[in-house]
């Protein structure tokens, strides 16, 4: 790990590995999109967890093998940034380079379609509750797929890709993904340990705040503490603090929910590690990414406060149950007279 002559698998040490991991975190976008297709799966409670877990494990192994093979094939400073594998085989193995290029092209197309697949269904669902205009909830009459949402996202995504620098997009996607995964990990713990009206939420909220604080201290120490024994002491102290907090929480706060078929195992350790790692990776991104993320997050909050809240409450007050083919469905009066009547 000599900075003057970097070499090997870790030319810039652990810091380089984590900085790179934060940059390419967008590679794991798409697996969560499977959950948005629960309405189209025959046995979602069984098939979705198996599909998500299995695909993540397989792809992670393949990613690691590809990275290791590239590190062994060429020195890091000779790897082509734009097309690493295709360029590595160019020359003597030209046909291999062409095959890799074709495969990469199909991979980009597949990733785009998967991203649109989940996002379109998400917009369709929130359109039914009027959080966004109900126009997005319209589905195709034959295929029952979200037609308007898919068309809008296709045009919108193409426009962003055409006019925005790739590095800006990658950083913005990475910070958004890390933040969402951080929130999901918090939500998993909260839902498993809190039942509204039965348990008090403050022990769980206190644990989540303390865990987040210890993770943040670790991240700040990693980036700003001077090298040497003081830095190692601070890092070890933060890890020990996070471990102690989680251990105390596990033995003092009982779980009140247990999934019937499948749920996150090793509670609360696994989501706690996720919280810790997501905060750490968030600290590896640059400042402008946070500015852009804050701007778009603030814009989304404004839309939600000034439009979505009022539209959804108005729809509920007027007795609308949802949207079918883009048209609002009003609650049937027959259902009030006959409790067995299904709308």
What proportion of the residues form beta strands (DSSP E)? under 5%
Tally of strands = 2
Secondary structural class: mainly alpha
Radius of gyration based on Cα positions: 24 Å
Biggest β-sheet description: 2 strands, antiparallel
> Are there runs of 5+ residues with pLDDT below 50, and where?
331-343
Order of SSEs: HHHHHHHHHHEEH
Averaged pLDDT: 80
What is the end-to-end distance?
67 Å
Report helical residue fraction: 55-70%
How do the strands of the widest beta sheet line up side by side?
1-2
Number of separate helices: 11
Count of all domains: 2
Basic shape: globular
Subcellular location: Membrane
Main location: membrane
Domain Cationic amino acid transporter C-terminal: 262-312
Organism: Gossypium stocksii
Descriptive notes:
The chain is mainly α and 343 residues long. It contains eleven helices and two strands, in the order H-H-H-H-H-H-H-H-H-H-E-E-H. The chain has helices at 13-23, 44-73, 84-88, 94-128, 147-163, 166-193, 202-224, 229-252, 269-282, 287-317, 334-337, and strands at residues 320-324, 327-330. The protein has a two-stranded antiparallel ribbon with strand order 1-2. The radius of gyration is 24 Å and the shape is globular. Residues 331-343 have low confidence and may be disordered.
What is the topology?
Elements: H1 13-23, H2 44-73, H3 84-88, H4 94-128, H5 147-163, H6 166-193, H7 202-224, H8 229-252, H9 269-282, H10 287-317, E1 320-324, E2 327-330, H11 334-337
Antiparallel strand pairs: 1-2
Subcellular location: Membrane
Pfam families: AA_permease_2, AA_permease_C
Domain Cationic amino acid transporter C-terminal: 262-312
